[in-house]
Amino acid sequence: MLRIEDRAGVRLIAFNRPEVLNAFDTALYEATGHALGDAASDDGVSVVVLTGEGRAFSAGQDLAEMLALADERERPTSTAGSGHGFGVFMDALMDFPKPVIAAVNGVGVGVGLTMLGYCDLVLMSEDARLRAPFTSLGLVPEAGGSVTLPELMGRQPAAHAIFTSAWIDAEQAVASGLAWKVVAADRLVDDAMAVAAEMAAMPLVSLVESKKLLSAGRIDAARAARAREEAVFARLTGAPDNRAALESFLEKRPTT
In order of start, what are the domains of the chain with their CATH numbers? Predict the structure, then answer.
């Protein structure tokens, strides 16, 4: 589910569900959240690098599980969703006190895009692509994306990305502010680890305090956005038209 590797103060966390393009189910959300929590409390870790195994960074939410949970929520006695997998992951990422670098090795869809709003540097493979598919699914942005995407991209580019669900290639991602640089696919992780090693050579207290200053204010805004988004998301997920859109998307989405 995760591949974790340590190199001289840098912890690599790789999403490892390549058979479903690293789509996040509850178990992967929680495993990643706990891995981030472990890295946060480990004084031997100064920087985290996130990447994906196989040909995807992450295809986003595991829609099969999401539909099943929506069905469970319709039953009055259900406790579906009580594990709060998404919340475990997002809280850990938003609260993470050390630098986070994303090495986007392939498609990043849904949360595979919106999580980048909490990464301090984003490197993208030259053939990687990003997409905010929410309107095509009859849904709305999540993970605070309604605030972080306009902050990174500017309001109108973010509006276009959200309202059209258009793909964003690596060069466009850099031009828009979603990513820092484009890297050849065969060098992506090594380059990300090299940049992380440069950071890890600095005093940890300086990294932590600098990140606090860079994040001041924006995380509070993102938390408020998450609360608004999640209320609408829950309402829309079970709507008949939206359910049909989700099922159609799930049928068309490739796996390996």
Answer: 2-186+204-252 (3.90.226.10)
